[in-house]
Amino acid sequence: MKRLFLWMILVLAVAKTQAQQMPLDTLLPVRGFCIAAPLPNRLDEFIRFIDTELAPRKVNTLVLRVDYNYQFKTHPELRDSVALSKAEVRRLVQTCRKHQITLIPQVNLLGHQSWANKTGNLLEKYPQLDETPWVKMPAKYEWPNSDGLYCKSYCPLHPEVHSIVFDLMDEICDAFEASAFHAGLDEVFYIGEARCPRCGGRDPAELYAGEVRTLRDHLAQKNRKLWMWGDRLLEGKVTGMGMWEASFNQTHRAIDLIPKDVMICDWHYERPDQTPVYFAMKGLSVVTCPWRKPKNAVAQVQDMLRFRRSATRPMKELYQGMMQTVWSDAGSFLDEFYGRKKSTSEETPTHCFQDLYSEITRLTP
After folding, report:
1. Boundaries of every domain in the chain
2. Residue 261: what are its φ and ψ, rounded to 5°?
3. Quick one: which of 26, 122, 141, 170 could link to 22 by a disulfide (CB 3.0–4.6 Å)?
4. Of 97, 77, 145, 86, which Cα lies nearest the Cα of 117?
5. Where does the Glycoside hydrolase family 20 catalytic domain lie (predicted)?
6. What's domain 29-363's architecture?
7. Nearest Cα to 227, choosing from 83, 103, 85?
8. How does pLDDT run across 194-245, given as a tens digit for each residue?
9. Environment class of 217 (CB within 10 Å of its CB; exposed 0-12, middle 13-18, buried 19+)
10. E strand or H helix at 282, and its extent?
């Protein structure tokens, strides 16, 4: 009996040593960072940040929220007034390639077509694509409001929308030499509106899943992968997750209708809810995304490593890793990170990013 006990201790010690010797990519395949693409006047500093902060921390995935901060040739009318050129994007591509960082551009699709009292570029130039044209943008935005306006959506069934959207996706993926594209698809409050002549009376889950499939299938034609936020695939009322981190408008049932090769970016900012297990059980790859609470980020990376250790073989590789998110512009984040903008709170994206990657370093080789 004593020999058996000693043998078991030896086996456990060997297993622990082998785990400690596993390469980082095996333990945590995705180690990401998501932020708005820098404006041209902050590009040099952002490239230095990649060189001196992301690469040493072994970040291997960079999602840049580009939206219209690019000098589109297919639709120049949609460019921001100040936007990155193709040559400037090429510098980002070369820097990431040097460090073996996968670079993924994002353009917000379906939802987030407005913010506060400002209509986004797509609906500003193509107002016929608006899912709710009867909802007028207020002079001063307040929430809650009688229109239920958080952000505008485009109509996924409008016959003109995808010819424009596909042009943007193709051009931005070509410019970033990208093998994946992030479509956003989060916080869609307007979908299947009764007054929409195309969407009225349709199942919001089927409409949402249909848009995911449409975008995914277009990307697949050039062997590109779709990334998206996961909140619309979670039920918000019964779970208590609320209408931002989950859905109140029945889109959650789309989780059973979308392709299984979509990458889910599962964000929870107030609590470290363990929804990656739900996504993995549905056969979807998932990364966990913290924002500004360091304690949550530390708990979430511990959870992700535990999920990978304890999962069945088919589910293990669905738990893909972690991605820090930043919801300011790149310049504001850099000012905070380098101490030019002071904060009295420990709950900032800078502290969250630092603690997240310190924990990854501590827990992995």
Report:
1. 29-363
2. -95, 15
3. 26
4. 145
5. 81-290
6. Alpha-Beta Barrel (3.20)
7. 103
8. 999 999 999 999 999 999 999 999 999 999 999 999 999 999 999 999 999 9
9. exposed
10. none
